[in-house]
Specification:
498 residues, mainly alpha, Growth Hormone, Chain: A
Length: 498
């Protein structure tokens, strides 16, 4: 819905500070009024960015089965099915390396593109990557397709939390961002289901990866239709990337589109409140890399990137990408049985994520993190014990796997992404999230790629014991470092904790 001033085509101008500073200033005084919105109007601004998470989750679920299909002499449908552990690791983690590239690119161009256009570009990479992978004639082309798809993941997982956080009403922000995790898990469920249906189909892995293409088209069309983030537009205004009054009117227009008729006459007040806070918090210029490593930026980076790092190095990629193989070790020897068992795992993830969505804005972030990560530590020690001492009791492995998944989805899964979308000041939110997403996928790729070699070198039991020890360290990090952000606006979080 075009307006006369488009912040995605910046025009440098002088910003009248007096005009900003004359606006009322209630937000940091803890007396902000509830934001008026309708549930109906909040659905689409959440739904299409969440498709980026769904496509990421689908890749995880589909890859769990696709790696088994590719290695099958009977069902792979290719002559190069006899892959080494390194080659298979590249198939598994190729999209994660692409996500690293996407995250690095986002650091430089995300604030210029804006959240909305970054998600459109992400959908394009998803689409091209899915088709290249599905039609790959040789191994090298397949890996290239996995990398391209991964660039889409990196951009989507960077922009989607920001777009949702910046457009969602503060009363339901935690629920909506946690619901994005629900979409990731739903994508896994779809991936596991498609994989189980196609696991005994010749060249089934091609269809598994090809399913992503039409979903990417839906995401791209939806994001094209949605308005830009009002907070990003106002950041453009503060940074001199357009004429102030025009961008302010554009932000009001976008906010009205996002909230629907329920917002009434309060859109102007909300926009002016945000402008006032941005002015007081000295948001006038883009942060340099040096500024990211000092003061409140460093504190936010420690909280966000630290939480995301522990989310990955407690073994999450190993459990998700190798779920089917763990089920095989636990007694589901047939590939089809193992992939079907993975469906039940995804269903559990979906249910527990739903629980987290319901309670995150009631119980808060810290209680869910502390309780869930405690369960993760116990489950990892149980998995280590199974592979070391209790190999004749497969119920231990299955129980530990279910406990891990349930606790992860109550804690690290939704709250890790929620915290990084909340904790960074607006001026550095784009770059802060890109660093956090880079840390996420770097650690994810490292753990996913190294699990098989470490399993051969040290034994699966020792690897899971190591993950368990890391989970204990993450509990200490959460207890001493992670703040409670429940019920606060993004501007209040910055004023209170940074």
């Amino acid at each position: 819905m075009a307006t006369a001033s488009d912040p995605e085509q910046p025009i440098v101008s002088f910003i009248d500070k007096g005009e900003i500073n004359n606006v009322r200033e209630p937000l940091l005084k803890g007396e902000h009024l509830p934001e008026n919105y309708s549930i109906r109007s909040a659905i689409l601004p959440f739904l299409f960015p969440a498709f980026g998470g769904l496509l990421y989750g689908y890749d995880i679920g589909a890859t769990s089965s696709a790696t088994i299909s590719i290695e099958s002499a009977t069902f792979s449908g290719i002559s190069w099915y006899d892959l080494s552990s390194v080659q298979l690791g590249l198939v598994t983690s190729g999209s994660l390396y692409g996500a690293l590239i996407g995250s690095a690119v986002a650091f430089k161009i995300a604030d210029w593109l804006g959240r909305r256009r970054e998600l459109i570009v992400s959908a394009l990479f998803y689409f091209v990557g899915a088709l290249v992978t599905a039609f790959a004639p040789v191994y090298v082309i397949m890996v290239i397709g996995r990398l391209l798809y991964g660039v889409g993941i990196g951009l989507a997982m960077h922009a989607a939390p920001m777009y949702i956080a910046e457009t969602a009403p503060s009363q339901i922000r935690g629920q909506l961002i946690s619901l994005k995790e629900f979409f990731i898990v739903f994508g896994m469920l779809v991936g596991y289901t498609v994989g189980s249906l196609l696991i005994e189909t010749v060249a089934g892995w091609r269809y598994m990866y090809g399913v992503s293409a039409p979903l990417a088209v839906i995401m791209g069309i939806g994001m094209w239709w949605l308005p830009s983030s009002p907070r990003w537009i106002l950041l453009c205004a503060i940074q001199g990337k357009g004429e102030l009054q025009g961008l302010r009117e554009k932000a009001i227009c976008c906010l009205c589109q996002l909230r629907g008729a329920a917002i009434g006459d309060s859109a102007t007040r909300q926009v002016d409140d945000i402008l006032s806070e941005l002015s007081q918090l000295s948001e006038q210029k883009e942060a340099t890399i040096g500024e990211m490593l000092q003061g409140k930026c460093l504190k936010a980076l420690t909280i966000g990137a630290g939480l995301i790092l522990f989310q990955q190095i407690t073994g999450q990629p190993s459990v998700l990408y190798y779920a089917a193989r763990i089920f095989q070790d636990a007694g589901f020897s047939a590939a089809a049985d193992a992939t079907r068992a993975s469906i039940f795992l995804a269903l559990l993830k979906l249910i527990m994520t739903g629980v987290a969505v319901v309670v995150v804005d009631k119980l808060g972030r810290r209680p869910l993190l502390l309780g869930g990560v405690s369960g993760i530590a116990i489950s990892l020690f149980l998995l280590g014990s199974y592979y070391t001492y209790l190999g004749n009791v497969p119920a231990v492995a299955v129980t530990a796997l279910l406990l891990y998944v349930g606790c992860y989805q109550l804690s690290f899964g939704p709250i890790g992404w929620l915290m990084i979308s909340e904790i960074f000041p607006l001026r550095v939110r784009g770059r802060g999230l890109s660093i956090s997403v880079l840390v996420n996928f770097g650690a994810n790729a490292l753990v996913a790629f190294s699990f098989s070699p470490l399993q051969v070198l040290l034994g699966a039991g020792t690897v899971f014991f190591i993950f368990g020890g890391i989970a204990v360290l993450s509990l200490l990090f959460i207890f001493f470092i992670i703040p409670e952000t429940k019920g606060l606006t993004l501007e209040e979080i910055e004023a209170k904790y940074l």
